[in-house]
Amino acid sequence: MSNPVKSKPPVSADLGYDRSEPLTVPILANIFSILLILTVVIAGVTFYYNTYVGRIVEETQLAPVSQDLLDLRAKEDKSLHSYGIADKAAGTVRIPVARAMELVAAEAKEGKFAYPTASYPVKKAEDAAAAPAVPAAPAAPAK
């Protein structure tokens, strides 16, 4: 009593392709493992980036302010909030910003401005095309 060995039916040359079904379990396992690896990599890169940015922000915010910057800010505050001479030859003076804003508001309330505020009509395309061209400067006489 011998058991006959079952063999696969031979693939005939006239079919041209393998008619057996693909193995779905290994394919699904590969897809799952690829998605799992991709998720871990994305989570790792995100964690690394957030940690790095947080460390850089913390270092820049906790860094002591340099004395040069403090001196510059003190000089700017002094020039913004005090009177002084801007140009002695021209006779111009510097006034505090708050006082300058008060003066400009007072001028606006009175209706007098130090700069022109009149409205001008908008030029139309036809007017600009009809305007004569500016003549060129005359050439220098030949010697």
Explain the overall architecture.
This protein has 143 residues and is mainly alpha-helical. Among the domains are: 22-63; 67-112, no CATH class. 51% of the residues lie in helices and 5% in strands.
Shape: elongated
Strand content: under 5%
The strands making up the biggest β-sheet line up spatially as: 1-2
Regions with pLDDT < 50 over 5+ consecutive residues? none
What class, by secondary structure content? mainly alpha
Number of helices: 4
Distance between the termini: 131 Å
Report the biggest beta sheet as strand number plus sense, adding barrel if it closes. Answer: 2 strands, antiparallel
Instruction: Write down the secondary-structure element order.
Output: HHEEHH
Brief sketch in words of this structure:
This protein has 143 residues and is mainly α.
Q: Tags for this entry?
A:
elongated; two-stranded antiparallel ribbon; 4 helices; mainly alpha; 143 residues
Explain the layout of strands and helices:
Blueprint: H1 24-62, H2 67-80, E1 84-87, E2 92-94, H3 97-110, H4 125-130
Antiparallel strand pairs: 1-2
